[in-house]
Task: inverse folding
């Protein structure tokens, strides 16, 4: 994909009498191009509050520019968290069979339920929530967790207050800005004035100090965390649920990387008693099933979760889904069912183990160089510390000198400064080559 910098343009609308087009002469617009007719529709003021470009397209743009500069360098991509290993045949065969059946009278199906195929909803509830009481009717199948976050933002609207982990996945903040929850951006601290940033760094074991956290309506919380790779403990999540209950808040809990957890950390917020009264959980097939391009996820909205007036949140979310979403592709849902079959799930866990083997190799490389590495045990991300350095400078140095793409921690919020995120997604030979290049750079 090619990327180019878009020059700023100023729209010069025609007058009602269609007078000749003019250009702005103000010095403010000296470096801007005038264009022709504009509508009278104003730009959404919230879009104007967004800062620069979205992080991952920005990384892709810099990657493209580097590839143009060094076409023979053999770029290694450990930045954007895209899976690399093929989807197991048992899963793709199920999708292919379903797709072929659509060409027959007997197998053709049109619209399905907006909430998802009930067989898949039951399989998700049984596979991931067997012991915590989540029912199939509380599971909403979707086209991915990130899309569901935006639908949840639409559900909550502009008049709620929001807290996020710092650092955190940028989609939580950007969607809060777009929907009108954020207030203005503050250059002096790199934060939006109406968003509460919960510091989650090495100083506090990557979990916020809730005793000093302001009350908000919504708390976005990701575990295992993207970007730090840290999975919250059971005791920490108990504190979070108690905090939400005491403040009348709703937790939007992102468990997209739960399948990577290898210790006793909870894989779902609903493992915590009382969580069904204060939490919504979003999750995804993207990272554990390699569905980043196939697109399938789900959201759990418990029946016990109520608004201030006692109205069930699940009823409003169902209305959002029915109004704004026509349901996930039936072909993809067939693949999702195959993922959760006994043989399909076993095959996927083998791929998860492969990626975590990659994480160990990368962690060993940075550790051997004296760098402190976090994550990489319960998630496919490593959070590497470079004390006193700008994260964008670290990113640029590694890219320029080793031809390895990472992600600057600052892109995940002010708390990400001095860090880079390194993805363990990749083919093993490329991971080994990246390890060699890094050791040569910092030896």
Result:
């Amino acid at each position: 994909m090619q990327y180019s910098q878009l020059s700023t343009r100023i729209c010069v609308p025609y007058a009602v009498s269609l007078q000749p087009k003019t250009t702005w002469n103000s010095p403010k617009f000296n470096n801007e191009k005038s264009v022709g007719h504009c509508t009278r529709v104003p730009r959404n003021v919230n879009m104007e509050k967004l800062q620069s470009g979205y992080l991952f397209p920005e990384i892709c743009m810099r990657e493209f520019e580097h590839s143009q500069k060094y076409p023979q360098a053999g770029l290694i991509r450990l930045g954007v968290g895209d899976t690399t290993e093929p989807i197991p045949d048992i899963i793709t065969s199920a999708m292919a069979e379903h797709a072929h059946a659509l060409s027959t009278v007997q197998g053709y199906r049109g619209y399905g339920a907006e909430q998802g195929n009930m067989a898949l909803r039951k399989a998700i509830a049984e596979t991931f929530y067997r012991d915590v009481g989540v029912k199939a009717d509380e599971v909403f199948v979707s086209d991915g967790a990130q899309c569901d976050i935006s639908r949840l933002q639409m559900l909550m609207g502009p008049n709620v207050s929001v807290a996020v982990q710092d650092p955190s996945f940028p989609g939580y903040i950007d969607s809060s800005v777009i929907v009108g929850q954020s207030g203005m951006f503050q250059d002096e601290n790199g934060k939006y004035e109406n968003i509460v940033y919960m510091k989650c760094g090495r100083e506090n074991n990557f979990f916020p100090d809730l005793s000093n956290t302001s009350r908000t309506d919504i708390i976005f919380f990701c575990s295992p965390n993207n970007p730090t790779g840290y999975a919250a403990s059971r005791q920490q999540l108990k504190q979070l649920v108690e905090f939400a209950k005491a403040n009348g808040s709703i937790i939007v809990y992102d468990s997209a990387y739960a399948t990577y957890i290898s210790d006793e950390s909870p894989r779902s917020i609903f493992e915590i008693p009382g969580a069904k009264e204060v939490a919504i959980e979003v999750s995804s097939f993207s990272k554990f099933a390699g569905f980043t391009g196939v697109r399938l996820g789900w959201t759990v909205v418990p029946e016990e979760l109520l608004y201030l007036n006692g109205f069930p949140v699940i009823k409003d979310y169902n209305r959002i889904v029915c109004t704004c979403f026509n349901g996930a592709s039936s072909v993809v849902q067939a693949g999702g069912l195959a993922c959760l079959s006994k043989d399909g799930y076993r095959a996927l866990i083998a791929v998860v183990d492969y990626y975590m083997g990659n994480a160990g190799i990368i962690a060993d490389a940075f550790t051997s160089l004296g760098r402190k590495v976090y994550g990489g045990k319960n998630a496919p991300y490593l959070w590497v510390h470079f004390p006193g350095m700008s994260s964008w400078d670290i990113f640029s140095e590694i890219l320029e000198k080793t031809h390895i793409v990472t992600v600057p921690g600052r892109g995940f919020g002010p708390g990400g400064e001095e860090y880079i995120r390194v993805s363990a997604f990749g083919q093993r030979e490329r991971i080994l080559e990246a390890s060699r290049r890094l050791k040569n750079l910092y030896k």
Summary: The longest helix spans residues 342-368.
